[in-house]
């Protein structure tokens, strides 16, 4: 591995490659072990070169967006870890928005508002990247990415460029084909409509107010932990089970919103995972409901 690390360091600039860097510096939970090779590409050419080297040396490749809905275990991640937040261009042409995978979803919604376009208000305040949002079909307030994306440009694990239409993305609740095929999202094209800027702003401000008043944004967290089970609200199930405030290590079920687990100080990934396991066990016992995680848990066990 040392020789491969040196190869990456020689081929790319210091800004683009870090070796044995702790991922806790980049995750929203402020937890996570080291990445053997951590890459910050700034253009598609970088990613193609990185993937070609990884394939040549049979390195595992892990792509991280804004790391907002992610838990990385303490032992870290072997192989090549790519963080796309330096690929963040946003272009608007009439009612079409072309955003690179690393662009902040919040920044996209603000640019869209400035252009007087409607359709993405639901995403105001979602702390993720475009790539991550496409990967998991992110959504809120009865809107999601599948409703506004027209096509997605990806790099396949074999290093080939492909473009998927909305239909080809196989979007479902918190799911897309990217999760099944391990493609890397490079950019997404959104088709929106012209709207009244005042109404767009009011809607965005209202969603941000609701998010701020209901969600524990004052603490590090991995966002919404569980998918909503059919016929139930996850937060209510956890609240009704009397679990709010339950804590293992530094990870606590939020007193503000039961669907969130927050880092109250020095929480580890293991703390988060233990709380998640406990919640799933109790909800199954109390309500016969199987909770499924929305958050991704990755890294060496």
Class of secondary structure makeup: alpha+beta
Q: From the coordinates shown, what is the CATH architecture of the largest domain?
A: 2-Layer Sandwich
CATH class of the largest domain: Alpha Beta
Q: Could you please say which CATH topology of the largest domain applies here?
A: Uridine Diphospho-n-acetylenolpyruvylglucosamine Reductase, domain 3
Q: Describe the largest sheet.
A: 5 strands, antiparallel
Rg, Å, rounded = 19 Å
List SSEs in N-to-C order: HEEHEEEEEHEHEEEEHEEHEHEEEHE
Question: What's the structural domain tally?
Answer: 3
What is the total tally of β strands?
Answer: 19
Tell me the β content: 25-35%
What spatial form do the alpha-carbon principal axes imply?
A: globular
Q: Compute the separation of the termini in Å.
A: 19 Å
Number of separate helices:
8
**Unreliable segments of 5+ consecutive residues:** none
Physical arrangement of strands within the biggest beta sheet: 6-7-13-11-12
Helix content: 25-40%
| Mean model confidence by pLDDT | 94
Brief account:
The strands form 6 sheets. Strands 6-7-13-11-12 form a 5-stranded antiparallel sheet, covered by helices on one side. The chain has a 4-stranded mixed sheet with strand order 1-2-5-3, covered by helices on one side.
Structure description:
With 301 residues, the protein is an alpha+beta fold. It has 3 domains: 82 residues, 2-Layer Sandwich (Uridine Diphospho-n-acetylenolpyruvylglucosamine Reductase, domain 2); 110 residues, 2-Layer Sandwich (Uridine Diphospho-n-acetylenolpyruvylglucosamine Reductase, domain 3), CATH 3.30.465; 83 residues, Uridine Diphospho-n-acetylenolpyruvylglucosamine Reductase, domain 1 (Alpha-Beta Complex), CATH 3.90.78.10. It is built from 8 helices and 19 strands. The strands form 6 sheets. It has a 5-stranded antiparallel β-sheet, with helices on one face. A 4-stranded mixed β-sheet has the order 1-2-5-3, with helices on one face. The mean pLDDT is 94.
